[in-house]
Amino acid sequence: MSHKAGFVNIVGNPNVGKSTLMNQLVGERISIATFKAQTTRHRIMGIVNTPDMQIVFSDTPGVLKPNYKLQESMLAFSESALVDADVLLYVTDVVENPEKNMDFLEKVQKMTIPVLLLINKIDESDQKTLGDIVEKWHTLLPKAEILPISAKNKFGTDLLLKRIGELLPESPAFFDKDQLTDKPARFFVSEIIREKILLFYDKEIPYSVEVVVERFKEDDRQIHINAVIYVERESQKGIIIGHQGVALKKVSTEARKALERFFDKHIYLEVFVKVDKDWRSSQKELNNFGYNPE
Prior knowledge:
Layout: E1 4-12, H1 18-26, E2 44-50, E3 53-59, H2 69-80, E4 87-93, H3 102-109, E5 115-120, H4 127-140, E6 145-148, H5 157-167, H6 185-200, E7 210-218, E8 222-231, H7 234-241, H8 246-263, E9 266-275, H9 283-288
Parallel strand pairs: 1-3, 1-4, 4-5, 5-6, 8-9
Antiparallel strand pairs: 2-3, 7-8
C-alpha cells in the first residue's frame, strides 16, 4: 500500500480557535490555548502518524497588522505557512468579520493547493446565520472547501482528518514515526509558563513577557528546571512578582503542576524575573529568543 505524507498548515486571524483545533487534531496538547488573542507566537508542528500516513500540522500566530518587531516576526511565521503547505486550513469563526485582514486573505485566494475553510465555533450560532456566513465565504474564497466545525466540542474534526488524508500527496514520512513535534522539551516549558502568565495577568503584561529556560536537567524520575521571565520595564517586574512574591509563586505553582502532567515526572521549578528593556522591538533580542522565521 502506498504511503501519504504532507504539511497541513493552520492559519487565520487571532482568537478563532487555531490552537484548540491543532490540539484536537494531533490528540495532544501541543499549542497553548487561552481566551486571549496573540497566545501563539511561534510556528509549532504537531505530527499525526498512522501506518500508511503522516500529517505534519503547523499552528501559526494569528494574522495581525504589526505594531512592533515581535508582531512582525509573528506575521512572518503565518506568511511562511502559505509557502510550504500541501493543504491549507484557513480557520475563521461565526463572529469575526470575514473581510478582516484582506491583505493576507488575498494571498490565500491566489494559492493553488487545496484550501479548507473551517468555520469554527458553530455551537455559538444558528442555522440561518451559519448559512449567511458560508455564502459570504463562498464569494471571498470561491475555490475553498467549506467545513463547519466546533474544535472545542470535536464536532467535524474526524471528517476533517478524513478529508485531509484524501488530499495529501503520496510521499514517504518526513519525520520518525514516533515523533510528535519538531520542538524540544525546553520550548514546551517556556510555553506552559507563558500560558499561566496569560491567564493570571491583565492588560499589557502578558504581551511584554518572554520566558527562557536556562537549565533543564532530567533523570529517570524528575526534572530540574530554571526559567527566567523577561519583561520590558522595572514596573512590570514588580507586577509579575507581586506583593511579597505571591503572584510569582502562583504562576510557578500552576506551571509546575502543568509541567508534571505534560512530562509525567516530578518537577523542581525555579523561576526568576529579569528586565530586558524593549526586547519586543530589538531584532537582536528577538533572534536570541528564537523569533527568526527562516
